[in-house]
Design brief:
The structure is a single chain. By secondary structure, the protein is α+β, with helices and mostly antiparallel strands. The chain has two domains: 200 residues, Cupin (Jelly Rolls); 58 residues, no CATH class. Helices cover 29% and strands 26% of the residues. Strands 1, 2, 5, 6, 7, 8, 9, 10 and 11 form a nine-stranded antiparallel β-sheet that branches. A two-stranded antiparallel ribbon has the order 3-4.
Length: 290
């Protein structure tokens, strides 16, 4: 994926970008998905359903039944018939952070994270024919959607709220009207990169679709500000209370000291440290040595 011509130089961060000829059979297969659904390893909300025109579906977990082992262990079990009915009613099945279950996807997200210097994770979507489970929306992080099976039509609109912060929700804002910036049908082996803030709605045009969306959470300038505050915490002056009996003096000294600290920072080293810090580091074990 990262070897696609000019993606890193002309697509990443800047504009929607179409990826093609991806080896999706190495990412995840129907056999792996069906094994996971039958395994009893996933529970709500790790697995959930959603339909754009049905708010209730987003908190629905009636597709699960629970039993207890003789040792008192609570075991979730997915009910195939209920999930099939949910799909017939227009719901998509979503498995969050599914890279933990699929080795090919785990390898891909790891490769992307290492190459781009940001956390990367994957959600899997199994969708029936028709509109997506979310309607027109934007994400607060960059995404790469990879079509594994079937086909979907993506309609992309330009940002109306630029550079959304983490946690900003598009449903608080009016969605754009009029002709999309671009429309593209993704078939198996195709991918689409979208920078954060781009509005999109998706329609499955095959009888069933499976795709994975890889989330990319790049460092923000506000993250650097948070790291700077940690530097300030080393100085007693910034840890001290504000004396509101002499606000004018306090404000002047605060501003002067803050400027001095920032001027003394090696900002290039600081930003490099921020990038390294934000990479997800999994705990390492080396059993049987301990």
């Amino acid at each position: 994926m990262l070897n696609c011509p000019d993606f890193l130089t002309g697509g990443l961060h800047f504009r929607p970008y179409i990826l093609d000829a991806l080896h999706v059979e190495e990412i995840v297969t129907w056999s792996e998905v069906n094994s996971l659904l039958s395994s009893g390893l996933i529970d709500y909300p790790r697995i959930r359903v959603a339909a754009a025109d049905n708010e209730y579906s987003r908190s629905y977990n009636g597709f699960l039944r629970y039993s207890f082992s003789e040792r008192g262990e609570r075991r979730p079990r997915l009910v195939p018939g209920v999930l099939r009915k949910a799909m017939r009613d227009g719901c998509a099945i979503i498995i969050d952070h599914c890279e933990a279950f699929f080795p090919g996807l785990k390898a891909l997200t790891g490769e992307i994270a290492a190459a781009l210097g940001c956390p990367a994770w994957a959600n899997l979507y199994i969708s029936p024919k028709g509109p997506s489970g979310f309607g027109r929306h934007f994400d607060d992080h960059d995404i790469v959607a990879i079509q594994i099976y079937g086909s979907k039509r993506w309609s992309i609109h330009a940002p109306t709220y630029h550079s959304p912060n983490r946690g900003d929700k598009s449903f608080y804002l009016p969605s754009p009207k009029g002709k999309p910036l671009m429309e593209h049908v993704l078939s198996a082996g195709d991918g689409l990169y979208l920078p954060f803030g781009y509005w999109h709605d998706v329609e499955t045009i095959s009888n069933i679709s499976m795709h994975v969306t890889i989330g990319l959470d790049f460092a923000r300038k506000l993250d650097a500000v948070k790291l700077i505050s940690e530097e300030l915490a080393k100085d007693r002056f910034f840890r001290d209370k504000i004396d509101y009996s002499m606000t004018e003096v306090e404000a002047r000294e605060f501003k002067e000291r803050l400027i001095d600290v920032i001027q003394d920072l090696d900002m290039e080293r600081f930003l490099a440290r921020l990038r390294e810090r934000r990479l997800d580091k999994e705990p390492e074990f080396n059993l049987p040595t301990f």
